[in-house]
Amino acid sequence: MAAHDCDVLVIGAGIVGLSTAHALTRAVPGLRVTVLEKESGPARHQTGRNSGVIHSGIYYPPGSLKARYALRGSAEMVAFCAEHAIPHEVTGKLIVATDRAELPRLHALIQRGREHGLPVRELGPAQITEQEPEVRGLAAIHVGTTGICDFGAVARTFGRLAQEAGATLVYGAEVTRIGRRPGRVAVATADGTVHRARALVNCAGLHSDRIARLAGDDPGMRIVPFRGEYHLLAPERAGLVRGLVYPVPDPAFPFLGVHLTRGIDGAVHIGPNAVPALAREGYDWRTLRPAELAGTLAYRGSWRIARRHWRYGAGELHRSLSRRAFTTAVRRLLPAVTEADLRPAPAGVRAQAVLPDGTLVDDFLFAGSPGIVHVLNAPSPAATASLPIGREIAERVTAVLDRR
After folding, report:
1. Which of 92, 177, 306, 345 could be cross-linked to 230 through a Cys-Cys bond (beta carbons 3.0 to 4.6 Å apart)?
2. Closest Cα to residue 8, out of 170, 162, 185, 181?
């Protein structure tokens, strides 16, 4: 059985794991960092399957980790993309109210944006049409700092920079066992290799709670996977949308609702909805992993979500199974769209941390135990905020190393 020693092991080569490796090699030159990833390459799950939006931070409560890191991270992400020639654009976006009941929430967002120091402008119906001729709404706000980029390319760049600084990236390395002793962590992968380190970072995303339990820690939550399904506007109809258009979100849910996103490649994505996935990597209804589904169904937090939000969930499920219903929902923002304009697009799965009482964790969630840092909840805007998140994790890890 082969054995390899290093200072820090990072599990997961998504954008957060690779940002962490990059931050560690910058913070402590010469630190031996190894990243283990079960897939054959980086950014294969949440990072590579999102809408590519650099979020401004307007949605997140002042003082929350999401607000702090998104506000800082959005500017840093734009600068990072410019420095490394990664395709990006600061486009701004519209958040549009289509119903009078949404107006108080829209006005609250305006106030929050101003508290954050963001450039926000109130728009009436005529001004909405000037920005987006095919979009209809009662009122909107324009947020100037929102942008788009290729987060897969960002993650690959983090990985390259980390490797150039001496880090090792190991792909096809699924973690199967974790052992601990004072001052040491040992991680075995499916091929029988054992990696020993002074500290471990769990950035396993959809499997973060499972990795925590492998390490002997109780994460106090469970990942409940929600699939976000997207459609593309047919190329000949992509001119219906100029930029980024969002509905007013419902604060009772951590999801932003179906939005319109012109990506860096010019294609217009519409979505996502949010439906329970039948596997942690269940990107369609055909993908079922009985053991993972049984784990979700056996978790009391899942049933409490269902009881609390069944009406919302039923609507999402209906829009998943019916393209007509999905189109009807989109037409609230974009009346000119038709069912024939929509093309299927790859889905994503959100790693949503859920507490035993059914609470959907709405902020980034970190936890620690001797020698280990766990990243237990890092959904959107984690890609936007990946640079400051990576530094935060690196600080926690170096503190662990300094105590040893």
Report:
1. 345
2. 185
pLDDT tens digits for range 367-389: 999 999 999 999 999 999 999 99
d(CA 404, CA 400): 7
Instruction: Output the pTM of the full model.
Output: 0.95
Mean pLDDT of 133-137: 97
> Parallel, antiparallel, or unpaired: how do β-strands 222-233 and 88-90 relate?
unpaired
Question: What is the average pLDDT across 326-347?
Answer: 95
Q: Residue 403 is encoded by which pair of tokens?
A: 């105590």
Do 131 and 95 contact (CB within 8 A), yes or no? no
- Compute the distance between CA of residue 145 and CA of residue 70 in angstroms, rounded to an integer: 11
What is the chain's alpha carbon radius of gyration, rounded to the nearest angstrom? 21
In degrees, rounded to 5, the angle at the alpha carbon of residue 153 between the alpha carbons of residues 143 and 38 is 120
**CA distance readout (Å), 136 to 123, 231, 249, 354:** 12, 20, 17, 35
Cis bond upstream, residue 381 (ω within 30):
yes
- Strand-pairing partners, residue 149, are 88
Q: How many helices (H) and strands (E) does the chain have?
A: 10, 22
Scan for tokens 């769990």, then name that residue.
Answer: 202
* pLDDT bracket for residue 134 (50, 70, 90): very high
- The contacts of residue 277 (CB under 8 Å, 6+ apart) are 225, 226, 227, 283, 287, 349
Tens-digit pLDDT profile for residues 65-81: 999 999 999 999 999 99
Q: Give the DSSP H/E element, type plus range, for residue 327.
A: helix 323-330
- Tokens 């974790």 correspond to 178
368 DSSP 8-state letter: E
Residue with tokens 């728009």: 123
Percent of the chain with pLDDT over 90: 90
Angstrom distance (rounded) from CA 161 to CA 25? 9
Question: Which strands sit side by side in the sheet containing 88-90, from one edge to the other?
Answer: 53-54, 147-149, 88-90
Extended beta strands in 182-298, E state? 184-189, 194-197, 199-202, 222-233, 244-247, 259-262, 268-271, 275-276
